[in-house]
Specification:
The chain is built from six helices and 13 strands. By secondary structure, it is α/β, with parallel strands linked by helices. It has a single domain, classed as Purple Acid Phosphatase, chain A, domain 2 (4-Layer Sandwich), CATH 3.60.21. Strand 4 and strand 5 form a beta hairpin. The longest helix has 19 residues. The radius of gyration is 18 Å and the shape is globular. 42% of the residues are buried.
Length: 269
């Protein structure tokens, strides 16, 4: 029974800085790692963590090294895909020692646990905030799915291919997504699409599959569905997802931090 943790949008900045002048993203990621490790006796074992993009805020080597040092205490292996705040080439160089990182081309990878295969896709577009899947990436996905007919698959990328109602994020979503929808909808096994980017926990259909968007680790995109609303963040509690293979893929949201409890509902019974 495979279990996968999904961390999204850490936005690590250089030492001594706050993201957007407001958020200590390094401390938030450290707390996320601590929360995961502390929770493992209750939620584990967990086979792998995936980080669905925006590991850094500016895509610099310093930020990637800081990200890796913050993730080092995590008691499980992890893989990542780039987001619009990442620099895919710099990310490849900084993770060149990892066997899942391709030496060149898009940052696409696949790992198979038998009862679940996880496919990571690179949706980043250099110099732009929106996402796009290249022909190379779509071909990689098609080949990976064809190798697992009827299997259970999770496809992970940064940019969601759907509209959430948060206008400033929707204009940065995955462009030209019809080919992706066709490939995923045509798969003959259980398939879950999971993304980041919006910093909110959102579930919506995408063709014949469900698309899960993960919360951010440190801050949320402000929940404002008004037309023309400004692009803002809110320092809501961070969170991460636990994807659990239990007959099908069951997803739990876990907040980052330490909270009172557990308390028995009826301690006298």
């Amino acid at each position: 029974m495979t279990r996968i943790i999904q961390i999204s949008d850490p936005h690590i900045v250089p030492f001594g800085q706050l993201a957007y002048g407001q958020v200590d993203t390094a401390e938030a990621l450290a707390q996320c790692v601590e929360t995961i490790n502390r929770s493992l006796p209750e939620i584990g074992p967990v086979d792998m963590a995936i980080v669905t993009g925006d590991l850094t805020d500016f895509g610099t080597p310093e930020e990637y090294q800081r990200f890796r040092s913050l993730m080092e205490p995590l008691d499980m292996p992890y893989r990542a895909v780039p987001g619009n705040h990442d620099d895919a080439a710099t990310m490849q160089a900084c993770f060149a020692d990892q066997d899942w990182m391709p030496e060149e081309g898009p940052v696409n990878w696949v790992t198979d646990f038998g009862d679940l295969a996880v496919i990571g896709l690179d949706s980043s577009v250099a110099g732009h905030a929106h996402g796009h899947l290249s022909d190379t990436t779509l071909a990689f996905l098609t080949t990976a799915l064809a190798a697992r007919p009827g299997g259970r698959v999770m496809v992970a990328l940064h940019h969601p291919p759907l509209l959430t109602g948060i206008e400033k994020m929707d204009i940065q979503n995955l462009r030209d997504s019809r080919a992706l929808q066709s490939i995923l909808s045509g798969y003959d096994g259980e398939l879950r699409l999971t993304c980041g980017h919006v910093h909110r926990n959102i579930l919506a259909p995408f063709g014949a599959v469900m698309c899960q968007i993960a919360p951010g680790v440190s801050h949320a995109v402000t929940m404002d569905l008004r037309e023309g609303a400004p692009n803002c963040l809110t320092q809501e509690p961070g969170g991460f997802l636990l994807h659990d293979v239990r007959g099908g893929i069951v997803t739990h949201t876990i907040p980052v931090g330490l909270f009172p409890g557990p308390f028995l509902f009826y301690p006298d019974n």
